[in-house]
Amino acid sequence: MSNNAELTNILVCGIGGQGVMTASEALSMAAIQLGLDVKKTEVAGMAQRGGVVTSHVRFGEKVLSPAIPKGEADILVGFEPAEAMRWAKHLKKGGVAMVNTSRIKPPVVNVGLFEYPDNPVEEMRKNGVEVYDFDAGEIARELGEMRLVNTILMGAISEHLPFDAQVLKDIIVERFRQKKPELAELNDKAFEAGRKAAAKSAQSAA
Known about the structure:
By secondary structure, this protein is an alpha/beta fold. Helix content is 42%, strand content 23%. The protein has a six-stranded mixed beta sheet with strand order 2-3-1-4-5-6, with helices on both faces.
C-alpha cells in the first residue's frame, strides 16, 4: 500500500502489443468490483505496436488524481526489463518491482537514441529496488500462447495486492470466458504459473 493507507498505486510499463493496457484494465475492474474508487491513465508511445506504453492505476476509498507521483508507486509491473529500470524511480521505499526479463528493444534503441542497458534488473537492485524477476515470455511459450504474458504478470503480482488473488483471477478468466471461451482455461493456468514464478523468484532473493 502507498504512504496514504487508503490508496494503492500500481504502475505498469512495457512495449506496445505486450498487453500493458489489458493488464491495467483487469486491475481496475477488480478494484471496481470491490467497491473502490479507481483512476487510470495511459500513455502510448510512438506506435500502437512497438512504442513505449505506461499505465498508472490508482484505487482506494477516494482517488483524486490518476497520475502516480514519483516515489509513490507500491508496485511496478515491468513487461520489459529496460522499461522497468526506466520507471523504477516511481517506486516508493519498500515498493516491489515485478519484472519480465524477456527483452524487446523499443524504437528509441533501434534508431540510436537510447542505449539498451547491459543488465537492467541488476541496475535496479543496485539502486535498492526489491525486484522479483522471471522470463514470462518463456512461460507463455511453454503454455503455447505468447499473448499470455500479461495474465502471467497479473498472477505474479497478485500476492502483493490488498485483496484476494482470486478476485483478479476471476476477472481475467471470466473476461475470456465471455469473449474467447477457448482461452479461459489457458489464462487460468497462466495466472497460476505467474504466481509460482513470483514465489520462486522470492525464494531465490531470500
